[in-house]
Design brief:
Elements lengths: L1 E3 L3 H23 L2 E5 L5 H9 L9 E5 L1 E3 L9 H9 L8 E2 L8 H5 L6 E4 L17 H6 L4 E4 L10 E4 L1 H4 L5 E6 L1 H11 L5 H6 L6 E6 L4
Parallel strand pairs: 1-10, 2-3, 2-6, 3-5, 6-9, 9-10
Antiparallel strand pairs: 4-8, 7-8
Helix pairs in contact: 1-2, 2-3
Length: 220
């Protein structure tokens, strides 16, 4: 179930190839496509490869985020800033961004679902998006039928207030790509697959949406 790649570049190649295939199929079948991007270190090289792809008509692709820090987009902590700087370049400069902060209209987000591809990272505590262990509202984020929820300051790095897609929203997708690096995170994935009570385990334990786990020992 865990796809192993020798280095971060090989992982990025595989992830980008899979995401491009999903987006291209959506454009062929429905004339539009929706991608959920994510923050952190792992997606940067994937964004670079996506930006160079000529297999996608990016003018018909809308990109939103799995989660966001409640900061101005100019802030280095902003996930939207990383998406603009790494993905919205070259051929992908014509894509459209639906930021999560300030929160978008629910109707605008709902209109994108089901998402054609969802990119996720994972923390060493087993969190995905900003569904973070220790959050008093975590169970609501895992069970609610709403698409968005707020996360109070004090959790994650940096410990600022956040907004996140809920588990229900993440699973309203056609394919999920979980990008992880390093031995510590592989151990967390194996614990989740064995039944540990972690947010990522909820993702891996469902059968509604195919999840590709792409792992490399490089860049832990």
């Amino acid at each position: 179930m865990i796809e192993t790649y020798p280095n971060a570049g090989a992982l990025a190649d595989a992830a980008a190839h899979g995401i491009v295939a999903q987006l291209a199929e959506a454009l062929r079948m429905r004339g539009r496509a929706a991608l959920v991007a994510t923050g952190g270190r792992s997606p940067g090289p994937v964004f670079d490869r996506l930006a160079a792809s000529d297999a996608v008509d990016w003018s018909r692709v809308v990109v939103t985020l799995s989660d966001e820090r409640c900061v101005d987009e100019a802030d280095p902590a902003s996930n939207a800033r990383q998406v603009r700087e790494r993905l919205f370049q070259a051929r992908a400069a014509k894509a459209h961004l639906l930021p999560l902060w300030p929160p978008p209209a629910v109707e605008a987000l709902t209109a994108l679902a089901p998402f054609d591809a969802v990119m996720l990272g994972m923390g060493e505590d087993g969190h995905i998006a900003s569904l973070i262990p220790g959050d008093p509202g975590l169970q609501d984020g895992l069970a609610t039928k709403d698409m968005l929820r707020s996360v109070p300051a004090g959790l994650g790095k940096p410990p600022v207030a956040r907004i996140t897609l809920t588990l229900r929203a993440l699973l309203d997708a056609r394919a999920i790509f979980l990008l992880i690096a390093g031995e510590a995170k592989r151990a967390v994935i194996e614990q989740a697959l064995a039944g540990a009570d972690l947010p990522v385990a909820r993702l891996l334990g469902q059968s509604k949406v195919p999840v590709r786990i792409l792992w490399t020992p490089d860049g832990g």
